[in-house]
């Protein structure tokens, strides 16, 4: 009896196995219309852009919801979005926006000035509508806090008429317009938010080219075409699926076997392979980041300018880029990338010259060199694929001019803590831009205001001259004047050399050759409205 | 047994998780953590309370059946974890089916033909199986069977183009309930590579265990008697011998099943399997305390339960073992 039972079991198992094998080969039924599958490294934590700071959330929400002004397709310059025109008052404190009158949210409600006011009220009040546990992180950091805070920039937002919104600021804010174009400040449907504030981040509703359809956690998010999209003829795709495939190599395998159509996060080493493959195409995302080596100027011998300049001469950026970025980066000379307006191309790079470096060290009184601790990142970052190896590479050159370094590499969280507290002597770090404003790089990373622990300015570089210029530039709203300030600022920083600006990385992506019209945006995520599939 | 183990687990995970440097606020804000934002967020998350108060709050909520809320997504862990658990369970189950089927038969065959070339070959296979790193095997599988031969998909549980609303989150069960055979077939195809990768090590371990256990039994007197009576060889092996050799095998099975549940992280990462291993891994990265603590507790509970079931199985396999009677 027993024997027969186990025999049945075995036969049963064989049957299952054969079904599996029989299943191979045939293609499963696809959905109707054009579907694009976008492979990426991680799932989105939340789909309410106002609540998050991570790119994987913005990648999806940017296609569902839109901002008042947008960045141009391939740069960080601001152009019209849900607002068609805007003006700033003489004193810089009043901004008036004219809105589009032909836009509807996915739930059928009308987009108008009331909706804009509703969204700003929600963010600035933080606890608006029972979203008690939520914090609108980016709002606080870009607009100086929340309602009631001392530094909060926005005094009031009001609807002048159905399609006109007016912002009154407490003081002029230079980057205001640039800020409004950021993904977290996309306009949500007030009706959808009110319906269930705590669940909005699971079912976002906006005005964008695609509508939210479904979400399988840690697996895929599906969006569907918005047939009533205000830009006529768009989107070209019927469906977009964002699929999480955490391992970079596995994601490339999925691309090569046709499981996905576009992938983010290609290993730089695989870029050549993609280029050679006729069925694939390689994309390079324009840089909106900078990777740097910061000196802790509060520690000897980095209080001496000549020492800092000497090390600037001792780093071979081109060699670095060739060895660790597979040439997918540009050597940096300023603390902000060239894709931003205000970039000062006249600044002359400290060229790689070990003799000059030695000479400067001698002048500074460190002819025999010295020993320091050198922090290197334990994890790959967008601006630096392998911190430790890059540190070793720099270490070898520094040894030639008599500087001995000991590389330390604590776990990432501690790494940030240590550097923010100034425990390091030299450290590698980087920054990815938020709003495409030079202020977002120069002020955040190098102003003396940001040397308070935990510091963002991990060089602890305190220059009053620079501070005055950066503050002036923040108050100014005329872009040409601001450009002048920032170009001057870059000269000062270059001379004082608180960093060795290392690279502007251009992260590589790959896609099937039949994917048309995909343009990677410097901010890290992009609208897929104009993307098409032509097989 | 269950209660003290779980209390111990909760204490250990809580304090280990909180001992990891860095805070969820910092993980959330990353490089752009300005001092004020950081402070406000930590205050809001209750991270400035003394540790024992945080632990006390955690246990208090736990006793009320509240596993906490994920910091990253803002959703309750008890709701969020279900699809991940189901995904892992399904994968582990299939891996175990493969491991047991091939492991037991390989072991039996080796023992039956001890010291033959087949025996040596099987044991070499088992040795390779034990020694092979899962991630390497997974990547090789992907390369050969997904990329070159294109027999199986390389990642995920289901083709994303298929629209499918899971109910139980066990895709096979869901597909059967809904009578959707396209989904069933697709789910099967997605299962093969990760299940083989995950099942290889337990398969090898089970094969070796079965072999040594069977060797012992096959030498015993009653088997000789059975042979002398002229009982068929197949019947001797599968009925008379296997049952007595089963106890060590079942023990290994229980332990391996537990390991599969918790230890599928590598497989889940390579094959983009949205399981509990990856869920926890991501949570550790984000210092999502609630998810890590409660997630580990849930997995530990299942582990303990499986071992309980294994203990009960002993009694069924060997009636001489009885619980509660001395």
From TrEMBL, chain A:
Segment forming the signal sequence: 1-22
Keywords (A to Z) from UniProt: Signal, Transport
SUPFAM superfamilies: Periplasmic binding protein-like II (SSF53850)
GO cellular component, one term: ATP-binding cassette (ABC) transporter complex
Any GO BP annotation: peptide transport
Domain Solute-binding protein family intervals: 78-450
A Pfam family the protein falls into: SBP_bac_5
Molecular function via GO: peptide transmembrane transporter activity
Similarity comment: family membership: Belongs to the bacterial solute-binding protein 5 family.
Name assigned to this protein: Peptide/nickel transport system substrate-binding protein
Organism: Melghirimyces algeriensis
TrEMBL record, chain B:
Claim: Plastid is one of the keywords in the record: no
PANTHER family the UniProt entry points to: DIPEPTIDE TRANSPORT SYSTEM PERMEASE PROTEIN DPPB-RELATED
Organism: Melghirimyces algeriensis
Membrane spanning stretches: 81-108, 120-139, 191-210, 245-271, 291-317
Designated name of the protein: Peptide/nickel transport system permease protein
Membrane topology: Multi-pass membrane protein
Annotated ranges, domain ABC transmembrane type-1: 85-314
Family: Belongs to the binding-protein-dependent transport system permease family.
Keyword list, A-Z: Cell membrane, Membrane, Transmembrane, Transmembrane helix, Transport
Example of a GO biological process term: transmembrane transport
Compartment(s): Cell membrane
Superkingdom of source: Bacteria
């Amino acid at each position: 009896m027993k024997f027969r039972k186990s025999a049945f079991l075995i036969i049963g198992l064989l049957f299952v196995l054969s079904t599996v094998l029989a299943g191979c080969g045939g293609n499963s039924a696809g959905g109707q219309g054009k579907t694009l599958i976008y492979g990426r490294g991680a799932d989105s934590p939340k789909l309410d852009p106002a609540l998050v700071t991570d790119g994987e959330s913005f990648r999806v929400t940017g296609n569902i919801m839109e901002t008042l002004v947008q960045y141009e397709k391939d740069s960080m310059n601001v152009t019209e979005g849900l607002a068609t025109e805007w003006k700033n008052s003489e004193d810089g404190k009043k901004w008036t926006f004219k809105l589009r009158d032909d836009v509807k949210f996915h739930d059928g409600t009308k987009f108008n000035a009331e909706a804009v006011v509703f969204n700003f009220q929600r963010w600035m009040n933080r606890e608006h509508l029972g979203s008690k546990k939520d914090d609108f992180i980016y709002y606080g950091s870009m607009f100086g806090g929340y309602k009631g805070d001392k530094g909060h920039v926005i005094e009031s937002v009001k609807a002048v008429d159905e399609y006109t919104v007016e912002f009154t600021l407490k003081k002029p804010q230079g980057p205001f317009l640039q800020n409004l174009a950021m993904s977290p400040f996309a306009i949500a449907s007030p009706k959808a938010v009110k319906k269930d504030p705590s669940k909005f981040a699971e079912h976002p509703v906006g005005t964008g080219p695609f509508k939210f359809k479904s979400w399988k956690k840690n697996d895929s998010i599906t969006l569907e075409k918005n047939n009533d999209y205000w830009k006529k003829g768009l989107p070209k795709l019927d469906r977009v699926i964002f699929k999480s495939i955490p391992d970079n190599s596995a994601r490339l395998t999925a691309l090569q076997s046709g499981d996905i159509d576009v992938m983010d996060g290609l290993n730089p080493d695989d870029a050549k392979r993609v280029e050679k493959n006729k069925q694939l195409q390689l994309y390079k995302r324009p840089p909106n980041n900078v990777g740097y080596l910061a000196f802790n100027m509060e520690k000897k011998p980095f209080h001496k300018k000549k020492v800092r300049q000497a090390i600037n001469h001792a780093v071979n950026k081109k060699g670095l880029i060739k060895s660790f970025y597979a040439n997918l980066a540009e050597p940096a000379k300023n603390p902000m990338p060239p894709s931003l307006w205000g970039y000062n191309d006249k600044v002359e790079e400290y060229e790689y010259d070990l003799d000059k470096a030695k000479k400067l060290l001698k002048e500074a009184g460190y002819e025999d060199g010295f020993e320091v601790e050198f922090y290197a990142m334990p994890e790959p970052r967008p601006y630096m694929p392998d911190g430790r190896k890059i540190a070793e590479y720099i270490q070898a050159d520094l040894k030639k001019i008599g500087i001995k370094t000991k590389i330390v590499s604590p776990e990432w969280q501690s790494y940030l803590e240590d550097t923010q507290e100034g425990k390091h002597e030299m450290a590698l770090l980087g920054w990815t831009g938020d709003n495409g404003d030079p202020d977002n790089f120069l002020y955040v990373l190098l102003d003396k205001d940001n040397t308070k622990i935990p510091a963002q300015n991990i060089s602890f570089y305190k220059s009053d001259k620079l501070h005055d210029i950066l503050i002036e530039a923040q108050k100014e709203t005329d872009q040409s004047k601001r450009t002048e300030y920032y170009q001057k600022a870059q000269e000062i920083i270059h001379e004082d050399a608180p960093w060795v600006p290392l690279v502007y990385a251009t992260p590589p992506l790959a896609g099937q050759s039949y994917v048309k019209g995909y343009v990677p945006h410097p901010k890290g995520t992009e609208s897929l409205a104009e993307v098409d599939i032509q097989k | 047994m269950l209660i003290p183990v779980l209390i111990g687990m909760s204490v250990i995970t809580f304090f280990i998780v909180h001992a990891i440097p860095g805070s969820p606020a910092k993980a959330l804000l990353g490089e752009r953590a300005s001092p004020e934002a950081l402070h406000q967020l930590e205050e809001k998350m209750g991270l400035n309370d003394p540790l024992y108060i945080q632990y006390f709050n955690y246990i208090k909520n736990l006793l009320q059946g509240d596993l906490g809320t994920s910091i990253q997504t803002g959703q309750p862990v008890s709701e969020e974890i279900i699809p991940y658990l189901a995904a892992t369970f399904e994968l582990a189950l299939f891996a175990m089916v493969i491991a047991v089927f091939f492991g037991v038969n390989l072991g039996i065959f080796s023992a039956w033909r001890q010291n033959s070339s087949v025996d040596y070959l099987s044991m070499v296979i088992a040795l390779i199986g034990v020694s092979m790193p899962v991630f390497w095997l997974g990547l090789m599988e992907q390369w050969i069977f997904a990329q070159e031969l294109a027999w199986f998909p390389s990642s995920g549980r289901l083709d994303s183009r298929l629209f499918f609303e899971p109910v139980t989150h066990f895709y096979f069960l869901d597909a059967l309930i809904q009578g959707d055979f396209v989904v069933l077939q697709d789910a099967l195809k997605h299962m093969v590579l990760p299940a083989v990768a995950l099942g290889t090590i337990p398969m090898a371990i089970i094969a070796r265990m079965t072999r040594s256990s069977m060797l012992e039994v096959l030498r015993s007197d009653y088997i000789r008697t059975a042979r002398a009576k002229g009982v068929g060889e197949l019947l001797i092996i599968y009925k008379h011998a296997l049952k007595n050799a089963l106890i060590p095998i079942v023990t290994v099975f229980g332990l391996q099943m537990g390991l599969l549940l918790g230890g599928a992280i590598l497989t889940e990462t390579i094959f983009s399997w949205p399981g509990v291993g990856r869920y926890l891994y991501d949570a550790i990265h984000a210092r999502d305390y609630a998810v890590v603590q409660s997630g580990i507790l849930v997995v530990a509970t299942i582990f303990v339960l499986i071992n309980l079931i294994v203990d009960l199985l002993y009694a069924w396999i060997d009636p001489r073992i009885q619980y509660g009677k001395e």
